[in-house]
Design a protein that fits this description.
The chain has 420 residues and is of the alpha/beta class. The protein has 12 helices and 17 strands. The strands form 5 sheets. It has a 5-stranded mixed barrel.
Length: 420
Amino acid sequence: MNFHDSERMSGVLAQKGMREASGAEDADLIIFNTCSIRDKAEHKFLSELGRIKKLKKKNPALRVAVAGCIAQRMGEGLFKRAPHVDFLIGPNNLHKIADVQNWEGRSAALEENPELAGTDLPALRKKKPLAWVSIMFGCNNFCSYCIVPYTRGREVSRPEENILTEIEGLAAEGFKEITLLGQNVNSYRGKDGQAGLPELLEKINGVPGIERIRFVTSHPRDFSDALIYAMASLGKVCRHIHLPMQSGSDSILAAMNRRYTAGQYIEKVERLRRLVPGAAITTDLIAGFPGETEEDHKSTLKAMESIRFDGVFAFKYSVRPGTAAARMEGQLPEGVRARRLDEILAMQDGITLEKNNALLGAELEVLVDGPSDLAPGRLTGRTSTNKIVVFDSTPAIKPGDIIAIKITVPGKHSLCGKPV
């Protein structure tokens, strides 16, 4: 989502005649587009911001903007903490980056924006054949650990016709895969609150030129049978879902305000696998949430054994100021959180490797992304189940092609193969 926000800010500035600098030293304007979901992200940002201070001393005409969730959370207090910052732009006001050349002195755009969903912004996309498309903004769930509702506001959905027009334009430009973005895409609602995500997927499925459709992120509470049926019946919708479980303990899920039980989560996973055989499921997990006991932790490990995720994004619990969890008793020591995270990651590494080993010799359909960042001279792509595949390049293969790859070397994080 932040990556796409950066694309949109770049698109707005390009329309104003600005171009990307080759590096920070050559820039007239530096924009930090920030994330506040974890404490580590804020520390990384503040460290980078400190380095830019030296550039500002060398070039007093340089302008520095902070955009995104940290700008919204810290507000104008960031001006005092970092006097070399000139502009603050909250995630609901990215369009105002267009006026940055006219701003004088220190300026902040942090107010609510009721027109957000109806404001279509250009995006400077560089990842063809893949494109991100926002379908909604904000979140109404108020999970006790999460700061997003406080920084991005309440849920608001984009009009269906705006989304379809954007996607039709992307198809005309040669984009092949679309990923729909939202804090909780499952709660998307179209005109008059009627049509939801399944209906939107059906219409996108009919757009000529689009070959694959993905969506993130899904909330388990709102992961409906209608959405499962859409995944099963619509040929362009990928057989992968990212469905954050966060914990396998019912008491911790309740403390997190997730509003589902581990049993309900597992039931939905089982329904998905019955109707979409071979579907890949990835998830998010938080280790060491306040009050989490060893039994709670073991419940998470047990759920992982039962579900056998294809991949896990796991993190130590991070205190976010202003959230309900920050005020909870039972905050756990760093060592306990770190050890539990290590156990989660070790278990998942074993499951992922076992699943990938089972693909040795299989022929998988891969959408070619382009050159591999990790294997120079080779290409990379993804399967419908979101497996990364690296393979040898040939003159006939180009980004956007969908080709068959025979898996020759399965690994923990990716697969290697050769074109069939």
